Amino acid sequence: MSVIRLSHGSGGVETSEIVERLFISRLGEALKKLPGGLGLDFPDDAAAIPMGDGRYLVVTVDSYTVNPPFFPGGDIGILAASGSINDVLMLGGKPIAMLDAVVVEEGLPMETLDKVVNSFLSVLKSEGIALIGGDFKVMPRGQLDKIVITTVGIGVADRIIVDKPKPGDKIIVTDYVGDHGAVIMMLQYGENPGAFKSDVKPLTKLMLPLLEKYSHYIHAARDPTRGGLSMVLNDWAKTGGGVIVVEEEAIPVRSEVASYAHMLGIDPLHLASEGVAVLAVEPSVAEEALKFIQSLGFTNARIIGEFRESQRYRGYVLLKTQSGGFRILEPPRGDLVPRIC
Amino acid sequence: MSVIRLSHGSGGVETSEIVERLFISRLGEALKKLPGGLGLDFPDDAAAIPMGDGRYLVVTVDSYTVNPPFFPGGDIGILAASGSINDVLMLGGKPIAMLDAVVVEEGLPMETLDKVVNSFLSVLKSEGIALIGGDFKVMPRGQLDKIVITTVGIGVADRIIVDKPKPGDKIIVTDYVGDHGAVIMMLQYGENPGAFKSDVKPLTKLMLPLLEKYSHYIHAARDPTRGGLSMVLNDWAKTGGGVIVVEEEAIPVRSEVASYAHMLGIDPLHLASEGVAVLAVEPSVAEEALKFIQSLGFTNARIIGEFRESQRYRGYVLLKTQSGGFRILEPPRGDLVPRIC
After folding, report:
1. Are the C-beta atoms of B279 and B89 separated by less than 8 Å?
2. A18-27 confidence digits (pLDDT tens)
3. pTM (whole model) above 0.90
4. What totals of helices (H) and strands (E) does chain A contain, helices first?
5. Which of residues 198-227 of A touch B (CB under 8 A)?
6. What three-state secondary structure class fits B155?
7. Is B148 helix (H, G, I), strand (E, B) or coil?
C-alpha cells in the first residue's frame, strides 16, 4: 500500500510530483487560474487575480508547522508572518493584509500561544499590514504536536513577476543561504546552535525599493525556502527552458552551515532560507541592481551565475566548481528535515 | 498554569474571548481592516477588500480538522471546499477562486488522501471555482492525526452583507439545523448514525439567486457552523443592539437530532450545520423571500422569529417555548464536541 512519506512534504521533487498528480493534473486549464491571472498553471510563490484596472491582487497561503516552534532568531509566529509576506513580495506585490488560521493542541500552555501570537502581530505591526480575518481551532491532546499556523498573504502589484528567466539574466542571491534550515536541523538533532541563528525576516525593506526601481528588469524572484536555492534554480532552468550556470564559490554560504551540512552528507544548497531572495535580472542592470541591493543593507548579496540558452543542458543547473569543472546541481529529493517551516 | 482547553476551539463564547484577547484587542483600529473594507473590526464570516470600482473582494480562511475525515454525507474534502464557499456567500460574495494548504501525517494511506482531494476538487469543478494556489506539508507520524486542510475562499461582491439586523427583520432558517454536528458526535461516540447524514454542501444554488433578487433586503446572513444557530442569533442580537425573539417550534430540527441531543443533555441549537443559511430579512419582503427560497429546493426553510428593538433584553435571544413562556437562549459554552469541522 502506498503511503505518505516525509519526502512528499520536503519541498523537493516528490512534493512537486504529488501536487502535480493529486491537484494540478486533475484540473482543466480553466480551473487552474482566473482569466488573465496566475494560478496553478505556473509554479510560483503566489497567485495573481486581475483587478480590472491593470493591477493585480496577489494572494498566497502557507501552513507553518516548524518544530521546535521557538528557535534562535525567531519563532513560528515570526515565520508565519514573514513567509507569507515574502511570497507576496516575490510575485511583485506590496503586502497589505493578512488572514490567519491557527490550530493548537489542547493543553498547550497559554503562555506559549501568547508569545507566538505576539511575535506574529509584531511583524504585522512593524510592516503596517492589516490582519483582516482568521480562524481558531483546538485539537484534542495527542492529535497535534503543539501548533500549526496557516497564513494568507494579500498584496497589490502593478506588475507581477512570473518566474521566467531570460537568456543572459544574472542570478543574484541577496544573502547567505541555508541558515534557517541549518538551525532547525541542529535543534532537531539535539545540538546547540550556539550563536548561530535563523535568517527569518520579512523582505519588504529589500523588495519594495527594488521593485520600484527595477521591476521591469527582474524576470524571476523567489525566496529559497523548502528545497533551498537548488530547488529555485532547478525550477527556473525548466520554466526558462535553458540552463543555469552558477559559480560554486560565489554562492554565499556561511562556513558553519557548509561544514554542518557536509558532516551530515547534505548539500547546503538544499537547505531552507527564510529571509533571502533569489533574482534573475537583466544583465545590463545587474551590477547596478546588486549595488543598490547592497546599499539597502544586504551587504552579502552576490551575483552567482547566469541563465543561458542551451539545448544540451536545457532544464539543468550546472555548478562550476572551484577546480574549474562542472557538476549538475540536482534538485533535492528525499526527506532532509521534517517540519522545517 | 493556564492552558488551551477544547472549549477555546468550539466556536462558542470561549472562542470569541480568546480571539478577542489574543488578536483583536492587540491591534489598533487601522490594522483590523483595510480602508473602506471589513475585517476583524466586526464579527462576520469573511473579510472584504474594496476593489476601487465599488465592488469588494471577499476573502475567508478556515482550517478543517473534522474527525473522522469520512462521514455519512461527505468528507473533509467536501467540507473544506463547501465551508469556505459558504463563508464567501454569507458576506454577499460570488465565489470565484480558492487556495488550499494541506498538512498530512506521515504514513497516511495515499488512497485516503486521494479520495479527500478528489472530493475537494469535485466541489470546485461542479461550482466552476478555480484552484489558484496551495501548499502541501507532511508532519512525522504521531505529530498530527491524519489531516488538516485549510482553505481560502475568494469571491467578488457588489454589496457586502455586514451582519447587522434591523428592527422588524424576520429571521429565516433555510433548512434543518444541527445535522452535521449530530452525525459527527454520533461517530465520535462510536454510534451508528444509520441513514442519518451530514448536511454539508455549498450553498451557491441558494445564495446566488437570492442575492441577485433580495440582496438589498438581507441585513444579515450566516451559516450556523461551530456554535450552531444559537451562536449566530446571539451574535446578531449584540451587533444589532436589540433582542431576537424566536418561536421554538418554528425552528426546523429533525426529531432524531433533537432526541439525540437531549439524550446527551445538549441543546440541538448549539449543534453545527454545514449547509444551512440563517438570514435577517426586511419584513416587507420576508414572506416572498421565503417562498423564493423554498422554490429553489429548500423546502424546509422557515421564518423562525424576528429582531426587535429592546433596552431590557438588548443583546439577548429569547426563545418562545411551546407552553407560551420565554427562556433565554444562551450562547454555547464549553466543549460540545471537538473537531466537528
Report:
1. no
2. 999 999 999 9
3. yes
4. 8, 14
5. none
6. strand
7. strand
